[in-house]
Amino acid sequence: MSKNFDVVVIGAGPGGYVAAIRAAQLGFTVACIDEWKNEKGGPAPGGTCTNVGCIPSKAMLQSSENYDHAGHAFADHGIEVKGLSLNVKKMVARKDSVVKQNNDGILYLFKKNKVTFFHGRGSFVQAVDGAHEIKIAGATEENIFAKHVVIATGSNPRALPGAAFDEKLILSNTGALAITDVPKRLGVIGAGVIGLEMGSVWRRLGSEVTVLEALPAFLGAVDDAVAKEAFKQFTKQGLAISLGVQIGAITAGKNDVTVNYVDDKGAAQKAVFDKLIVSIGRVPNTIGLNAEAVGLKLDERGFIAVDADCKTSLPNVWAVGDVVRGPMLAHKSEEEGVAVAERIAGQHGHVNFNTIPWVIYTSPEIAWVGKTEQQLKAEKIAYKAGSFPFLANGRARALGDTTGFVKFLADAKTDEILGVHIIGAMASELISEAVVAMEFRASSEDIARICHAHPSLSEAVKEAALAVDGRALNF
Ligand SMILES: Cc1cc2nc3c(=O)[nH]c(=O)nc-3n(C[C@H](O)[C@H](O)[C@H](O)COP(=O)(O)OP(=O)(O)OC[C@H]3O[C@@H](n4cnc5c(N)ncnc54)[C@H](O)[C@@H]3O)c2cc1C
After folding, report:
1. Which of 56, 198, 227, 465 is the most exposed place for a label (fewest CB within 10 A)?
2. What class does CATH assign to 4-157+283-351?
3. Which residue owns the Cα nearest ligand 1 atom 17?
């Protein structure tokens, strides 16, 4: 028996499940296929983000930060903790239950929106009479038909040549989020978002963490002033970060991993770790889609080739999220998912790449939107800058966390906000104001003239906007 749908979405990560829900809201009959299995073999929709990415990493970051605070910061508040102990297995079990709540939440949303969910792998078979035939293999075995297909198959971790992930000693994000005993010596290859977040978790829980990065600059995509402050803070906390290294042979022993590398001075080095996290980027996932056989074009880097509207080379086949060009971020995937569903409905889906926020959930947190100062210089755009330190913010003092600053970059002539960069507590939440402002093409003066609650960290955002015009009030 065949089933026909208006829209079939392959992949239930943030791009796919959101596309499916939006398409259902718009009145289409929708199916979503996802192959992710939980430990019992059941469905676990939510993709990388929910299962081994955004959500579990933030759960572990929060738990490890609580432990760190109890061990260090609480004393400053007059709270003395005696006999502090750590139960990593319980911490990981809590993280697993947070993941499950999210998996269950998506299954509930599918039911609520009448999206038919299939647990299995979806692959293209053929196009017949203007419909795409999709084969489902797994818990469900059947072929279904769709007028429109949205591919949202995400990405996989990139391995280092000669150092395949065994998830016991050489770990991808999957293994890094499932460690149940604190490794004494933890190596991290790659000082990107994932490496720094994972390194922070285990540093707080007691590991000696060494981060090895091939690039000579630390956080090259981040505004220089922020990257400099972050490097200072992370090294002060105890992360040993080596930049400009050249990784050589990696050998896994019985209980440890040896990494040979050449440091930035050209000297050969050897480091031995109890566990090694490799976080050197991610590759688009088109495995098992049977993409080439039906003529779906990939670009030279293996991403599904799409136009600005997320249309692929096949009629009525769309692709969103990590499997296509652009930043590999959950919220970018979601925006594309919504936009594609709306385009299928003949509406004008909208994704503004200039206002996609970036966040690194370390402590201090780092968040930004728009251009960095070095980008503006390179592009020869005349700008004004204003900064405000959290040290001068009353709420930050009350919190006991005055690290970092807010920095505004605005057009020298029009005062339009071109970029906002935050390093400090709750940067991930504070950046939203800047995103909204930039989406509405606000000027720094607009933010400076808006009433912000006192005392709040958001006052530092207002003060940085005032500082663009040299008139910060509290600094
Ligand atoms: C450790 C870590 C932390 C991260 N933290 C953040 C963060 O804080 N914020 C942020 O914005 N981003 C974060 N990311 C990135 C984020 O997880 C991804 O950008 C996001 O998950 C991409 O969403 P997606 O829907 O494109 O793909 P995915 O989430 O990868 O989902 C793809 C889904 O498709 C399924 N699938 C693949 N092929 C098939 C097939 N043929 N048939 C059926 N199903 C298939 C997969 O099983 C998977 O469930 C993090 C990533 C990692 C690894």
Report:
1. 227
2. alpha beta
3. 49
The reply to whether 4-157+283-351 and 170-280 are identical in fold is yes
Q: At 310, which amino acid appears? A: C
Closest protein CA for atom 51 of ligand 1: 53
Owner of token pair 């065949």: 2
Q: 317: Cβ below 6 Å to ligand 1?
A: no
Of ligand 1's atoms, which has the minimum distance to the CA of residue 120?
Answer: 43
Q: How far apart are CA 94 and CA 58, in angstroms?
A: 12
Distance CA 168, CA 276 (A): 9
In the CATH hierarchy, which fold is given to the domain comprising 170-280?
Answer: FAD/NAD(P)-binding domain (3.50.50)
Active site amino acids: 454
Cβ(47) – ligand 1 distance below 6 Å:
yes
Digit-by-digit pLDDT tens for the chain (475 residues) are 459 999 999 999 999 999 999 999 999 999 999 999 999 999 999 999 999 999 999 999 999 999 999 999 999 999 999 999 999 999 999 999 999 999 999 999 999 999 999 999 999 999 988 899 999 999 879 999 999 999 999 999 999 999 999 999 999 999 999 999 999 999 999 999 999 999 999 999 999 999 999 999 999 999 999 999 999 999 999 999 999 999 999 999 999 999 999 999 999 999 999 999 999 999 999 999 998 889 999 999 999 999 999 999 999 999 999 999 999 999 999 999 999 999 999 999 999 999 999 999 999 999 999 999 999 999 999 999 999 999 999 999 999 999 999 999 999 999 999 999 999 999 999 999 999 999 999 999 999 999 999 999 999 999 999 999 999 999 9
| Beta strands at 405-411 and 383-389: parallel, antiparallel or unpaired | antiparallel
How many angstroms separate the alpha carbon of residue 194 from the centre of ligand 1?
13
Ligand 1 centre to CA of 53 (Å) is: 7
Tell how far the Cα of 177 is from the centroid of ligand 1, in angstroms: 15
Domain ranges for the chain, please list them. Answer: 4-157+283-351, 170-280, 355-468
Three-state secondary structure call for residue 27: coil
State the Cα torsion 289-295-301-307 to the nearest 10°.
-100
Q: Candidates 38, 54, 123: which one to mutate for ligand 1, based on the most atoms within 8 Å of Cβ? A: 54
Q: Which of 10, 32, 49 to mutate to test the pocket of ligand 1 (most atoms within 8 A of CB)?
A: 49
Single out the residue of 30, 266, 248, 233 nearest to residue 134, CA to CA: 30
Dist CA 339 CA 186 (whole Å): 41
360 lines ligand 1 (CB under 6 A): no
CATH number of 355-468: 3.30.390.30
Q: Which of 48, 167, 196 to mutate to test the pocket of ligand 1 (most atoms within 8 A of CB)?
A: 48
Determine the Cα–Cα distance for residues 227 and 221; give it in Å rounded to an integer: 9
